[in-house]
Amino acid sequence: MHWLIRGCHLSNDASKEITKLPIGTSLWADGLRRLRKHRFAMVCFGIIIFYFAVAGFVYIAEFFDLDVPVVRWSEEVGQAYHAPGRGYIFGTDIFGYSVLRKMLYGAKMSITVALCASFISIAIGVPLGAIAGYFRGFIDEIIVWIYSTLSSIPYILLILAFAVALRDKTVFGYKLTGITTVYLAIGLTSWVGICRLIRGEVIKHKEREYVLAARSYGCSNSRIIFRHLLPNVFHLVIIDFSLRFVSFIHAEVILSFLGLGAVDKPSWGAMIDSARLDIPKGYWWEMTAATVAIFFISLALNIFGDALRDSLDPKLRVR
Length: 319
Hints:
Blueprint: H1 2-6, H2 12-20, H3 27-37, H4 39-63, H5 99-135, H6 137-151, H7 155-166, E1 170-171, E2 174-175, H8 179-189, H9 192-205, H10 209-216, H11 221-257, H12 268-275, H13 285-312
Antiparallel strand pairs: 1-2
């Protein structure tokens, strides 16, 4: 052990940090320990949990047809353009609908789209990146050519093209409309970044000792990729998921604003679209409610994603 230490040049802070680590602490346990010390990140995590809880409650209430006010967003609760006040936290819109109910229902739409798009993106990008980085050669060239072609197209234009192409199409007997079109368009166009990231990490890991040991034991290529390589780079998938989630929410807002989302249900983008003509008339509360909801979830996700990256990235564990 001493000859290893003599070959390293660590600062005093780094040496103290190493001595503080409990013996036998795994990467995940140490990452969670670091994350819990970041109090502001934990506050942001609480905000994210609140948004997910609201979205889950709305989804369950709608699925089981529960008699709760949030699901009855299209129920007239007052006169048109009632200003925010007692009984109407965010006022009412042009039809007398509660802006608060529409804002809460919009959380369900945005988070559902971001989750589905994230899973589609990971399901495509992670295996392709691992296969390209492990096998290299002709397979690598094909995959690199595919994601290089997609990345050369402006992202928002690519999403719009996919959303328009998929709208009202029938796949396996299921008609793609509204929210399904949105998360498919986002998921099918956003796997490039995670694919490139995983490919680079697999290229670095494939010649390490644990991979060579697995080969010497006669493990198949698929077992090496999915049982040895991917678990060692999976922290990057989690970090990328947390950082890209907010961009998927923004993409859903843009598509809904342009009329390519769900047309029969409220969303934050649709609220902004319907309120943009009300601003000159002095009716500001619907626009404010939607933008405030987007602001808090975006800020919380960005701060928590940065803290998660600092906690889980091995390169940042010792500074």
